[in-house]
Structures are given as structure tokens and as C-alpha cells.
Amino acid sequence: MSSNTCRIGMFRNPKGKNGYMNTKYLITISFLLAISKDGHIRDLRIRLGIILKETNEFIGWCCSGIKDELTPPSREIMFAISKEYRNKGYATQAVQGLVSYLFENADVNDFAAIALVENIPSNRVIVKSGIQFHSTIDIDNESYHYYKVLRSNLV
């Protein structure tokens, strides 16, 4: 897969009529201002859409924000991809791109990612993205694999 098969764009509405994100672009002004000013993003979230370059189609999302259920620092990377675009490397590409961008431009020293134990595809994306297994945790009576990556391990 070429590294140019999809791009990340910002989206506007978190949910459409059917409960899914339906708009491509959100200018997360506070986040972008923080990045451009001093890189100090505090507890701000960024929500990015994954757009297929060939068709300009919105095929998923990749986000980062604070996950209260995790031990601080608790900045999480999260993602989802439309069913018909799974197993093509798009989610891995988006996660790697967002992690690299934030390590290079923000005051982030580590990230966490979680996936339900039984969600093999999401666990695989996280591992392929260079995020290492840390432990298994329970959140709301469900078991999750908990992963972490340090800036020093990737830079």
C-alpha cells in the first residue's frame, strides 16, 4: 500500500442523522492554535476524518483526546474505519500519521490506546502502529488490552 492512498482531513459534525459522522471537515481552532503557538495542547481533542484520496470519500476517523478512565498521562489515540475499507492498512496509516504529527508538533510524551480484548482487528492496528502492549484493564465491566507508546521509542 502506498503511503498516499488516504489522507487525514478534519471533520465538522461528530454525528449525522444515522448516528455516524457525516461531514469531512472540522477546524479544531483551539487545537490548531495551541499547536502553532507553543505545542501545549493540554486536554484539547483533535478529531480527524480519514479520506480516500481516489474518491474523496470519508471512510473513517482517527482522534486523540484525554481518556479519564486511564492513569494519567492519559492521551488516547482512537480510530474507526468503515467496514468495506478494513484490512487495507488505512487505519494503521492514520494512527501512525497522527502519532508522528503530535510527537513532532505537540508537548505529548506518550499515548495510550485501548481495544476490547476480543477485537482482534483493532488490537492488530494498534500493534502495527508501533504501540506496545502494557496490560489488560477493565472499564465498565469489559476487558480491554491497554497499549502505550513513548515519544522516546519512536523519535
Structural write-up:
This protein is an alpha+beta fold. It is 25% helix and 34% strand. The chain has helices at residues 29-37, 90-105, 120-128, 151-154, and strands at residues 6-10, 46-52, 57-66, 75-81, 110-116, 132-139, 142-150. The strands form two sheets. A four-stranded antiparallel beta sheet has the order 1-2-3-4, with helices on one face. Strand 6 and strand 7 (142-150) form a beta hairpin.
Question: What is the compact description of this entry?
Answer:
With 155 residues, the chain is an alpha+beta fold. Helix content is 25%, strand content 34%.
The outline comes out as globular
Number of helices: 4
CATH architecture: 3-Layer(aba) Sandwich
The CATH homologous superfamily is named Gcn5-related N-acetyltransferase (GNAT)
* CATH class division: Alpha Beta
Number of domains: 1
Biggest pleated sheet: 4 strands, antiparallel
